[in-house]
Design goal:
The chain contains 9 helices and 9 strands.
């Protein structure tokens, strides 16, 4: 049934293994480089990622619209991944986030699919540079081992010096503390009920937020959408955004983002992908602070 993961085609089942073997045999028979293994591997790497992604989705009878509804990733981005049309993708952490979300929804291994994505996006000349790298592997391993040994010796010496310094400091400080006169406690006269209870001071939140550093917000529209952004209570954007634009903003403590279409705006703050503003196709509003960093995917979106 559409929208459900079929256990028959999960990785490791007999049906899945049979389809995978058949697919690999067809790729081997149709390879345009039958004699050159390096050229054949490079060509397969650039075509296998999108083909496998599409094949896994179709085997589970899952449509692109279902993935879009579940992950909030635009359909045109999913099609670009399956066709390996990198020019239509935003790039950077957004692409890797798309791959992780699709792998999680289809029940695939996220790290394995990311490795295939990196191989498909690899720069030309990787196969030619691999041979010298393999030849230099023993020499590199020896240098790394020597460096690690040197660092370990330095750490041991530093720890020994620190322990010795603490010991000498304790020996010098002991006579001074043992012979120091003990001050007699002085009674404090009561001056009235005003001094009976200490006055609590509110925590300085501005100092703690400034110590963490400023907030860096990246906004990427996937469709034409009206967006309003307030940084520390000041309006820094209030206009229509179009696909292809990438905007960056900075704030000390808080961003407030509102959009006419929640699923048409992608937000990244300090290198972390933020949750959607609301339900797909509806307007939404979200408040982003330092507390949203390293938080789970729930966020604090408000419809």
């Amino acid at each position: 049934m559409p929208g459900q993961l079929l256990p028959l085609y999960f990785p490791g089942t007999p049906a899945y293994i049979a389809l995978e073997v058949r697919h690999r045999l067809l790729l081997k028979m149709e390879s345009p480089f039958p004699g050159d293994h390096s050229q054949r591997s490079e060509a397969m790497a650039r075509g296998n990622f999108g083909e496998r992604l599409k094949r896994e989705r179709e085997m589970r009878e899952v449509s692109l619209e279902e993935i879009t509804s579940a992950t909030r990733i635009g359909t045109r981005f999913l099609e670009a991944l399956e066709k390996e049309d990198w020019n239509k993708l935003p790039g950077g952490v957004f692409n890797r986030g798309f791959v992780r979300a699709v792998a999680r929804y289809l029940g695939l291994d996220e790290e394995s699919l990311l490795a295939e994505y990196d191989l498909a996006r690899g720069r030309p000349g990787v196969s030619q540079a691999a041979a010298p790298a393999v030849q230099r592997a023993p020499e590199l391993a020896a240098r790394v081992g020597a460096a690690l040994l040197t660092v370990l010796v330095l750490l041991v010496l530093a720890m020994g010096g620190y322990v010795g310094w603490r010991h000498l400091r304790a020996l010098h400080a002991f006579p001074e503390t043992s012979h120091a006169p003990t001050a007699a406690p002085q009674a404090t006269p009561a001056t009235g009920p005003a001094n009976s209870s200490p006055v609590s001071q509110p925590p300085d939140t501005s100092a703690s937020s400034s110590a963490r550093g400023p907030l860096q917000l990246t906004v990427l529209p996937s469709d034409t959408v009206r967006v309003e952004i307030l940084a520390d209570g000041k309006t820094v954007l209030d206009r229509d955004l179009h696909p292809g634009e990438t905007l960056h903003f900075e704030a000390r403590s808080e961003f407030i983002v509102s959009a006419s279409n929640s699923s048409a705006v992608l937000l990244d703050m300090n290198g972390q992908t933020m949750p959607p503003l609301g339900a797909p196709g509806a307007s939404g509003r979200i408040v982003l602070t330092q507390n949203d960093l390293n938080r789970g995917p729930d966020g604090n979106a408000q419809p």
